[in-house]
Amino acid sequence: VLALALALPSVALENGLARTPPMGWMSWERFRCNVDCQADPRNCISEQLFFEMADRLAEDGWRELGYEYINIDDCWSAKRRDAAGQLVPDPKRFPSGIKALADYVHARGLKLGIYGDLGIFTCGGYPGTMLKHVKQDAQTFAAWGVDMLKLDGCYSSAEEQAKGYPEMARALNATGRPIVYSCSWPAYQGGLPPKVNYTILAEICNLWRNYDDIQDSWDSVLSIVDWFFTNQDVLQPAAGPGHWNDPDMLIIGNFGLSYEQSRSQMALWTVMAAPLLMSTDLRTISSSAKDILQNRLMIQINQDPLGIQGRRIVKEKSHIEVFLRPLSQAASALVFFSRRTDMPFRYTTSLAKLHFPEDAVYEVQDVFVGKIIGALKTADNFSVVINPSGVVMWYLRPMALPVQPRHVRQQAPGKGFRPALL
Fold first, then answer.
1. Dihedral through CA 78, CA 79, CA 80, CA 86, nearest 10?
2. How do the domains of the chain map onto residue ranges?
3. Over the stretch 14-24, which tens digit does the pLDDT of each residue have?
4. What pLDDT is recorded for position 417?
5. What range does the record give for the signal peptide (predicted)?
6. pLDDT of residue 5
7. Cβ(364)–Cβ(372) under 8 Å?
8. 352, 378 Cβ separation under 8 angstroms
9. Inter-residue contact 193 to 231 (CB < 8 Å)
10. CA–CA dist 76, 85 (Å, integer)
11. Which of 220, 175, 162 lies closest to 7, judged by CA?
C-alpha cells in the first residue's frame, strides 16, 4: 500500500498544459470496446469513427467553443507489440496508423488523445504499459503526434502504480512534446487519503480519475455527484489550473438521461470545474442535447481562469441542494439542484443565507434561459422553481460590492468558504 503516500522525488509535470479543464470528445462510454467492424462498421473502434468525429467537432460548432480533443480510449491497438516491443494500432481497424490520424485531427485545428494502461494488459485485454515500456511508449506517442494520454491502471499493483505514474510524467516531459497527462491512479486506490496524496498527484498529472466509470444512467451520475461532494473537503482544494479532478465523461445525448437530467449533469460538472469530455454520437446527436453541450455561458463558467472547484453549500430536508463556484472578477455560479421525483419545487432563499457579502448587489443571469435579473441585493429573498432531477443555474456578476478589508482577498476556499472578492 505504497500508493500515493510515497515521498517521491520532484516529479512535477510542469508542462504548462490544461490551465482550464480539457474539453473534447472521448470514445469509451458510447462506443466501448466494439471491435466488430464487419458486423458494425459505423460504430466500431476504428480510424473511420475518429475521422468522422473529428469532422463533426470541426464543422458543427464544437471546436470554436473549446471542444478540441478527440480521444481514443481502449481497444485501439493490435493484440501484441511488434518485434521492437513497440505498441502498434490494429492493422485492420487503423490501416493508416495513428500518425496519419493525428495529422488529420491537427489539420482540423483539433488535438488527439490516446489511451494506455499501466499494467500487463489494458482493461480490455490489449497490451499494457509495464514499467519497462514506459519510456518507449511515451516516445511512441510523441512521435505519432499525440496531445493527451489517459493512463489506466488495470492489471497493475499499488507498488507498480506508485512507480509507474510518476515515471510516465517524467517520460512524457522528456519527449519535448506537450502531452496532457490524465491518470487513473487515485481511482485504483479508493480516491481518498491516506492512500491518495493529492498534493503529490497535482504535481504529476494534469487530470485524474478519482472514482468509478460513468455508465449511461441517472443512478450513475448521482453516485458520482454523491461521492465527489461528500468528499469535497479533500477533493476541492486539489483542483486548479493544470490539475483537475475528473468525474468522468458527459453522457448527454445518449440513452440514459432525460432532458432535465442532462441539464443537471452539465451544470454539476461545470460547477465542479470538471473536464468536459463528451462521449456520444456527434453524427446523430439531438438538437436539445447539442444546445445543452454548446451553452456558451456554461462553457465560460467551466473554463473560468481562476480554476476554483465549486462546493455544495446547502443540503435541505426538502431534497434541494445548492452548489457554489467562485469565479474571476468576483462573479459566482450557483446551481440549485432538485433530487425530488414528484413535481417542480419552489425554493426560496436569499444570497445572505448563501453567505454572500452583506450589502452587495448582483446582476443575475439564468445560464440555461439567458434571462437577466437586474440588481439582486444580498438581503433580498428570491424563489426558483426547480424541476424534478433538474437544476436552475445562475451566473452572478457584482454590480456593487461592499468595501471590505484587504484580508478578505486572501481567503482561500475551504470548509464553508464564502465567495472571496477577487
1. 40
2. 23-303, 311-398
3. 799 999 999 99
4. 44
5. 1-18
6. 42
7. yes
8. yes
9. no
10. 17
11. 162
Burial class from Cβ neighbours inside 10 Å (0-12, 13-18, 19+) for residue 235 reads buried
Cβ atoms of residues 132 and 167 within 8 Å: no
Name the residues annotated as catalytic: 152, 213
- Cα–Cα distance list, 245 to 157, 188, 209, 249 (Å): 22, 14, 7, 12
Class of domain 23-303: alpha beta
Parallel/antiparallel/unpaired status of strands 111-117 and 148-152: parallel
In DSSP terms, which residues pair with 181 in a beta bridge? 149
* Residue 349 neighbours by CB under 8 Å, 6+ apart: 314, 322, 381, 382
Q: In 282-332, which residue ranges form alpha helices assigned H by DSSP?
A: 287-293, 296-302
Q: With a cut of 50, list the residues of the chain below it in pLDDT.
A: 1-10, 405-422
Q: How far is CA 221 from CA 186, 216, 224, 272, in A?
A: 19, 8, 5, 13
Q: Could you identify the residue written with the cell 468528499?
A: 231
The model's pLDDT over 160-173, given as tens digits with 9 standing for 90+, comes to 999 999 999 999 99
Of the candidates 127, 54, 138, the one whose C-alpha atom is nearest the C-alpha of residue 96 is: 54
N-terminal to C-terminal alpha carbon distance within the chain: 41
Superfamily per CATH, domain 311-398: Golgi alpha-mannosidase II (2.60.40.1180)
Q: Hunting for cell 512524457 — which residue is that?
A: 172
Position 98: which residue type? I
DSSP one-letter code for 324: E
- DSSP 3-state assignment of 234? helix
Q: Is the dihedral of CA 411, 415, 419, 422 positive or negative?
A: positive
| Buried b or exposed e, range 376-386, using 16+ CB within 10 angstroms | bbbeeeeebeb
Which amino acid is present at 181? Y
Strand segments, DSSP code E, in 72-199 are 111-117, 148-152, 180-183
